[in-house]
Amino acid sequence: MSMELIANLAYLVAAVLFIFGLKMLGHPDTARRGNFLSALGMLIAVVAGLTVEGIVSFEYIIGGMLVGSIIGALAARLVAMTSMPEMVALFNGSGGSASLLVGWGTLYSGDISTFTAFTVVLAILIGGITCTGSIIAYAKLSESLGPFPFPSAAKPFPGQRIVNSILLIAMLASGIQFCMNPSVDSQWLYAVLGLALILGVMAVIPIGGADMPVVISLLNSYSGIAACAAGFAINNNILIVLEVFTKIFPVWSKGFAMSAPRGVKLCEILLVGWFRLQLSSKGSWGEFNRSIITRSCFSRRRFGSRGSRDQAK
Asked: What's the farthest any 2 CA atoms get from each other in the chain?
């Protein structure tokens, strides 16, 4: 049995585990088990992908697993439940950075086609926006950026819509120029990277802290789109399929669901940095967080009582 066949079978098992994991995440009683199955599926997919391509040896895979396990265990034990959105924001930034680096690393494999160059630009562009946007979202939620205080209120400034539009147009133009002549040392590649990092900051700055959970949900979806583009760049089908199923569609629907109780349309939050929109949401992040916790407790009691009735039957 060839390694490629074993890898495809491992991808199939990983996809099945992801599907069952996502199904279990919909109920509080099975959410932890679903999270474990999804993590196991991701582990199988990563190990299979790295092994079949001969990218790194098993020593590096085991070392990465140990480092990641230590970081995950510390985060699970030390981070309070009310600080989970901040941690999710940092995880989104890490995912965007990883997709950016994967797309960038694809350029070192030799001559690439125009389509591959396009996917590389998408991975770098969306990954860069996700990275810096997630950092600003974290700073707004925690009201600090390292040792420095960071206001959670919206911070628009005169001419911001014009600046954001210029950044977006310049970034798209630089991406087109890079796709026409892709190379590792292209100046247009660095232009796309720099403009994407700046645009991530500029897109999140004008949004208030109370709407950050919705922004984090959208950034989570952006990291999925960036990873999907990276999957096209490295020709990895399982990465494309899993990101579509686990991040892009579910997280977008979650963004709509989270924005509805705030009385805010999702497009208003997305476009506030480009158009003259007045967000209809009121209140602070703390008020929104308390309402979410109250709603979660009510949902837990409702599901728990339903489960007790089912067991009694």
From this structure: 68
- Residue 181 φ/ψ, nearest 5 degrees: -145, 75
- φ/ψ region of 235 (left if φ > 0, alpha if ψ in -120 to 50, else beta) reads left
Whole-angstrom CA distances from 136 to 52, 190, 218, 283 are: 37, 22, 14, 19
Strand partners of residue 230: none
- Global pTM reads 0.75
**Residues 6+ positions from 200 with CB-CB distance below 8 Å:** 128, 129, 130, 131, 132, 133, 134, 135, 136
Position 262 pLDDT exceeds 60: no
- Euclidean distance between CA atoms 171 and 180, whole angstroms: 14
What CA–CA distances, in Å, run from 188 to 115, 174, 176, 191, 229?
Answer: 17, 5, 9, 5, 19
What are the residue boundaries of the structural domains of the chain, listed by start?
A: 1-78, 83-304
